[in-house]
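Sanity check

After download, print the first record. It should look like this:
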Amino acid sequence: MNASLRLFVTNRLTRRVLRVGVAFGCLSAASGVAGCASGPFAPASLDKASAASAEISTLASAAKSYPTFADIPPPPADVRPDRAWGKAAAEVEGDGAALAAATAPSTWTLSATDSFAARALAATGPGVQGADSTTAATEAFAKQARQRATPPPPPKK
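Expected structure tokens:
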């Protein structure tokens, strides 16, 4: 515990810097303690030439009432007890675990898609007979889109 610094620091410059740092740290701590020694809780001096000195003196010497423990209000009665908070938290965690189990991988299957599509077509109402469109404007738009989607010819070499 009381080993010399030279056992750990081999360079002279490093030893000198370390000593200066320790000395600076001690001076900093001493100045901090000296600042507190003057009495941080001592009353501050008041400038009598100040325009507010009379009002400050009046306010400083006025009798003030401080709160007591009797002034603390009683706890509210409409707060649920601690055990109810724990039960509610357990319910939320249980619901989360059930949701994670219900949506885990390999729990969903895509079956009966034909009946789903039939129900969706029936829900659209009358006028829609199938997946293909019979409107001439729609067919013209589709033809124009196919023409625009045709890739350009390859560049000539």
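If your output differs, re-run the checksum step. Summary of this record's structure: The chain has a mean pLDDT of 82.
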